[in-house]
Automatic annotation (TrEMBL):
<keyword id="KW-0012">Acyltransferase</keyword>
<dbReference type="GO" id="GO:0016746">
    <property type="term" value="F:acyltransferase activity"/>
</dbReference>
<dbReference type="InterPro" id="IPR002123">
    <property type="entry name" value="Plipid/glycerol_acylTrfase"/>
</dbReference>
<feature type="region of interest" description="Disordered">
    <location>
        <begin position="217"/>
        <end position="238"/>
    </location>
</feature>
<keyword id="KW-0808">Transferase</keyword>
<feature type="domain" description="Phospholipid/glycerol acyltransferase">
    <location>
        <begin position="38"/>
        <end position="156"/>
    </location>
</feature>
<dbReference type="Pfam" id="PF01553">
    <property type="entry name" value="Acyltransferase"/>
</dbReference>
<protein>
    <submittedName>
        <fullName>Lysophospholipid acyltransferase family protein</fullName>
    </submittedName>
</protein>
Amino acid sequence: MRRGFWLRFAEFIVRPLLTVFTRRTWLGHDNVPSTGPAIFVANHTSWADPLVIAHFLYDRPREMRFLIKSGLFRVPLVGTVLRSSGQIPVHRSTRNAGDALHTAAVRIRAGEAPLIYPEGTITRDPDLWPMQGKTGAARLFLDTGAPVIPIVQWGAQQIHDHRTSKVRLRPRTPVTVSAGPPVDLSAYVGASPTGPVLKEITDVIMRRLRDDLAELRGEPAPTGPLFTLEESPRGLAQ
């Protein structure tokens, strides 16, 4: 895995902090292909979990390519690191919103493995289970045929709790990340990207993330439909 100056700079700053403030359990590294095209999908519970997942992938090692909201690319220094390390900006709610998926598909065909949060935002489920997903990962699968690798994480919400906006930097906060075998989407190979097909694939992916997270948490997965933003308390659906 090639790492340019700015990625090495970020590693120099961030990795020692994560080493101090987290106690890490990495599971399923063998399910993360070290090379070749793939689509990583992950549950999203906190602003801290991208750093934790990046650490997990870095230790595989595997290059880190995230689809990240474009506003972060305007933050001094942070934007420089993101651009120079090949992260993919997502221009949400604009006419350029689809550019991120086009860029991701090009990168996948070139042998890269971008990570996408299918929910598109931090979960608003009160118990931090995955919500109903958006169709980006499904579109990438139909466009590229790359395997969809589920990654679930738990513990990062103890560092940053989105529900209370509290940040707790406590040494050795336990965090666990687990990668599973590819999601079985064989029934959809060669399918047309119609609305119903995209929704079916998305639901398969989100249920797999929910079930893998349940195993990681040691709790039964919730039954019934996936939580939606429409169910969020007033003020939390932004």
